[in-house]
Records
---
Amino acid sequence: MKALTLSRLLWICGSLLAVLFVVVVVALKVGAVPISIADLALNLGRVILGRASQVPSEYRFVVFDLRLPRIFLAMLVGGALSVSGTSFQALLRNPLADPYVLGVSSGGAVGAIAGLIFAPQIPLVAPLAAFLGAIATIAAVYFLGRRKGQLDSTTLLLAGIISASFLSAVISFLVTTLAGQNLRGIVFWLMGDLSTPLPDALHWVLLAGLIVGVGAIYTTAADLNVITAGEREAIHLGVDVTRVKLVVYVSASLLTGLAVSVSGAIGYVGLLVPHAMRMLFGSDYRVLIPSSLIGGAIALVAADTLARTVMKPTELPVGAVTAILGAPFFIYLLRRRLP
Amino acid sequence: MSTPNIPMVGTPSQSGGQPTGEPVRLSVEQASYAYHTKGNTAPMFTLAATSFEARQREIVSILGPNASGKSTLLKLIAGSLEPLSGRVELEGFEISRLNPRTRAQRIAMVHQESPLLFPTRAGEYVLQGRHPYSRMMRFETQNDIQIAENALAQVGATHLRDRWMHEISGGEKQRVILARALAQQPILLLLDEPTLHLDIGAQVELLERLRQLALENRYTVIVVTHELSLAAEFADQVVLMHNGKCLRVGTPAEVYRRDLLEQVFEAPLDVDIGPEGRPRVHIRGTKTGRPAPILMQDKLF
């Protein structure tokens, strides 16, 4: 019998990290100003060796000030969305769950925009309000998605889609009536966008939130395996189902809220990546959570690189790229589930 | 409905191969329960005080028609419900007070299969039975794997180990689910309508396996069922339920009285005693081949 071992887990994560490294190198290299790998290695070496002053200033600007922070942001957001997608799938017993499809991303966006409009003076108001928006939305969708006390997978998806469209309307209302300044920026952000540079401090808040959220979910990984095999049975296998669901619910909402507050509603990453990881490495949540984390980073860095380069010098919002790839995949999964 | 003449339950009486010499393991003492839809309203369903005892190596069948209180009684025994009054104890410990992990190390439940969210191999499924023994992040040990392999072997399902759960037949799936329960290494094995989706061959196979497991692994086995003939065939003790009340507790020969069963199951039945002293139940037919009407009798409960 094959059981999961630590070495198998490390091997999987190691290979994914190697892929991530390659994708990051490519992402650093391509763009409006192409950079050769030799130059990249040379200048990265200079930074690592503490001779940053020797890096030519145009390199420093393009690679270190523009591309690297954006790649870092894409990794964080991609990882957060993938892990929250895979968590919602277990929590709601629905393989099609994804923060975007369920309207959780839109809920987070409403929170973030409302926060920025009504209380811009509070530090970190966008991520905080996005978290609250996300957690309220998933609670609403959860209760709307029940029929006769049971979660019904079709009703749940419809509830999510309707919440998403309702919340998008709320966003349009808030944006057109209240946010006079910077309209285009907000519209771009709504479609999912990584091009707006963030203050450095926010990167660290994001990283800390990601570690806390993913870490908390990972402590429930073995329980999630049992829960996905049947909630009723899980109780008889010693799982505290209520506690596990609460931990996962809060943490996944936190991850979605963080991602949305910095990048807008980037769709389908939380759907595509966990399914790809399941196909590659199986459904064990002890593997699925770390592999989705790294896989999500890979996917979003790759998607953002495409968004920067396919129409260069014009940039697409990354959400458009993920939706073009993700929506057909969603249809495929939906069709495959039908008898 | 009046309830005269219900024998109170003490030690199970002698007959068949009943393990009377074994120590008492499960004791249900005057346990009752009530479901409410909302607070302060009349309960929707009540389970009247019920008592019985089950010993090591004993198979007890909780028998009754739909909505008779069988499942509620099973939930009290599983510890997922706390009795409103009375006590449900496993080796002297009140079951609903045990923490979930400890409980899962002692009591295993076999439900009717519920749908899996993601494709799972039979072997991985059985390994989940080791969950109550694992620490938060710990990986399965060689010992866990060995126990899971043995559990599969005990139900004759070693060949299913690498098959997908959604690709195997109903009978095979039931065996794998049973193997997961065995991997919990419980002392009390609970089964909720285990024969519901099985054909007659698989039903007999499952019940023979339960008898063997009770003997070899010293389990106490509680089976909830509405299958009269099967319960007669394998149970050491029968707890007959009707409308939320426990009507009789005893050996099949003691409980299977025609007039009683006809009223409980609302069907014309014949009961005779088979060669091994176990009762056999038939639908009582008329000469036209149709079931005969239920004979009018005094109300027994």
---
Amino acid sequence: MRAVDLILSGDPEILSITALSLSISGLGTLLSCVWSIPISAGLALRNFRGKRITKSLFNALIGIPTVALGLFLYLLLSRSGPLGYFQLLYTPWAIMIGQSILVTPIVVSFSTSALESVDPDLRSLARTLGASDLQTYEVIIKEGIWGVTLAVIAAFNRAFAELGVAMMLGGNIRNVTRVLTTAIALETSRGDIALSVALTLILLAITMSLSVVVNLIRRSGP
Amino acid sequence: MLIVLVVGGVALGIYGYSISGAPSRARLIVSTTTSLYETGFLDELKSKLESRYPAMNVSFISQGTGLAIQTAMRGDADMILVHDPAREYQFLKGGYGVNRKIVAYNFFVIVGPPEDPAGIRGMSSVDALKQIRSAGLEGNVVWVSRGDDSGTHSKEKSLWKVGRFDSAQLRKEAWYLEAGSGMTATLKLANEKCGYTLTDIGTYLLNFNNHNIELVKLVESGKNLLNVYSVIAGNPKNPNMTKANFEGSMQLIRYIVSDEGQGLFENFGVSKYGESLFKPYINLVKSQSDPELIRWIQDSAFFGGSECPQEFRYQAADLYSTQGPTSILLTCLLTGIEGRKAPTWIQLLKE
Amino acid sequence: MMPHIETVDITKEYDGLRALDHVRVRAELGQVTSIVGVNGAGKTTLLRILAGLDTPNSGKVLVQGHGVTPDQLRVHSTMVFPRNVMFGTSVYENVAYGLRINRNSNHDIPAKVTSALALVNLDGFEKRKARKLSSGEQRRVAIARALALERDVMLFDEPTANLDPANAMIIERAIKGSVRSRAILLSTHNLSQARRLSDRMIHLYRGRAVEEAEPSSFFSNPSSEATKLFIDGELQY
């Protein structure tokens, strides 16, 4: 089938779209970790008023509709909007930021669970050996790293496969913001079915394999 | 492990950055119609434009004309390239745009199933629509509208209006379907439903030749079906557009009205479809080969006798030539002051 | 002699239950103090407070006569738990962890680790994965870990619980051997162990220190009724 030929022949269009997807979603996920993992550590290890509500909030936001988030950010990033100064709209950075926000609830929820299930005695152990709060967090995060990795992979999958944010903030511009999902959704309008099918196959291959990996990790543990 | 993540992240970042086309080039964002986009014309325009001006980095955002205009009003696009004169005028009047130029034209077509159950072949556009409605009310045919506030949708609404129908009312009737999508998606829907629809010739030919649809052209000429494409630059004096790339917009406009730019329109699609999908307007005017057509275009797309009334022009006197002798003199003086080449008397006399 | 570490009127409550009730204990450098009592008497709670891991509801802890906060306590003391908790790394790394974060120079660490492991007869175990060891070996790693830090207060919560006699012996020897200039407090159910190791014994009953004496008078002439019953194995919570 033509679609398979396109993939196997290393069609440059397909390669560049795939690479762009991977880098934007990858960076977005990593960016999210910068704040999400400390937040999870805080949620897992500290007690404060409203802790339960905060956790529920993050849980609830996991399934936020991507177009809703996309629209909200569009209005923020628009040149006539509050963050218009940065002129981020229709750039890959906009998608990256959007996706990093999108996946934050996933990273936070999963990581918090993972960290909470770390042996509490480990915390006491670290402290009695002289660890500061920060060092204790380090110990616990190291212990829960498999769970955190799981969270990150699941988050990447979500970012990689989403359409709403990429579409609203990216504009599907060739070589700039045309990622797998927008290409599939919007290029079908060009009538190039073989290309769309090829891209869909790639998208599925990547997301399915990551899901398998996630399940393997979850079942077999560290 | 942290190190691996960080290194990986940096590597991805560098790669992604390089792919995104380093922003050391000035970026021009053009919001435009789906019909131009879907035929692939804009890809060609982009590559030719960027090879002529390597410092430019053009991005075309394809949306329905309505959305395209709104995007520009918000300042998120630097200029528009659309085909809806009524709304273009509002855009100018609202102070959002300057320097409108009509650049190309073609015709809309009413297409439908080869058997033509409503029997509209060869009718005038307005009569055909009336006929489709009658057949639709009897439950024999369907009509598919773009329904997305695009230029094509505007044209459709105006055609219904000529026949004294209000499409807002027609929407409620069972035979009138709304696709809410771009042109290709709409054509495909009409194809699926064996219905009728209004389309621009470019997108139609593209999809017909790709064997995406079996719909055939049934009504294809007449003043009513004229489809005129224009460009308008974002008004740099508008508060929303302080960050707009006015210089880039003007560069694109000047290119697209130049011989080379017009030539792109002339040639696009000829080898594949036997005819150009978009006909260059300025060449038409220069050659005066079809005065009636020119009149049609000016009737439907001019505002108060001009493609761009004086008050909506900005630092672009060289683009407009229909002027009386006094203003020609003034123009020469002004362009002389601005340091641009003044048009020669001979060129002016020709026009 | 001024006690090195002492508690003054420590009270600790959990969910309305009073785990410790105005408890006063003291321990001196160079001495082993055992804390005995029935399950739930409050031994672990007391040790945790001395370790700076928990905060009492009222009362204070003094070191050399000065009041200290839990954070400050954690500088002076370290505790070994009854349940083995190992880091997921090698034996060496487990023992070295505390040394590293207490900013021992990298030069000194290997030597200190080796000697700590030697104290508990774990020579040569450096590279083994701590979590893969037997429970007795893990307990010894935990002891070594604590000894390596050379803190002045060492707290052992049931250090030989669930261990066979051989392991128990190694640990008792290590504890006794390291008392030198330290204050060691340990809790135990093993009364003969208490008699063997301690210089002083404290009986904790329902959150109160009801007896405090050196071993011989503790066993031969206890002053409190509860202690008498306890020694005879007839005391319940």
